[in-house]
Amino acid sequence: MAQVRAWITLEEVRTCFTMLPYFLIFPIWLLVAVAWPLVATCHALLQKGETQMKKLWLFYWASFVAVNYFMFFFEWLVAIPFFIIGWYIDIYYEVQLVGLIWLLLPHTFGIQMIYDYLMKNHDELLSLAQ
To answer: What start and end residues bound the annotated signal peptide (predicted)?
Structure first.
């Protein structure tokens, strides 16, 4: 007769609370962060006289490069809170995906909010940087 154990290990708990399998996260991230904005950028470039969307997608790609460059060197710093939370639930990559979806989803279009905020307050931000 098989013996039933009354406890589970921490690794089993962490496996249960991982939201997406790791082999799915990278393709989804590529679709959300690169393919979707690339299609939207091409669509904006084909629009005649629509300069606002062209500026917005240029801002997205410049921000994309800047954030990826920052993450190359400082991802360990950004990931520290997620290492602590990771003892209970592993959501680091899922939070990145949710952030990207918030930036790009037509209903929320967070990139537009960030762009508008930076354009409205660029004088104050530049004076703070100096």
So the answer is: none
Contacts of residue 64, defined as CB under 8 A and 6 or more positions apart, other chains included, come to 33, 37
| 4-21 exposure pattern, b = at least 16 Cβ within 10 A, e = fewer | eeeeeeeeeeeeeeeeee
pTM exceeding 0.70: yes
Please return the burial class of 102, using the count of CB atoms within 10 Å of its CB with bins 0-12, 13-18 and 19+. Answer: middle
Q: Which residues contact 85 (CB under 8 A, 6 or more apart)?
A: 91
Contact 75, 69 (CB under 8 A): no
Q: Coil, strand or helix: which one is 51? A: helix
CA pair distance 16, 10, nearest whole angstrom: 10
Q: Worst-scoring range by mean pLDDT, 2-6, 68-72, 86-90? A: 2-6
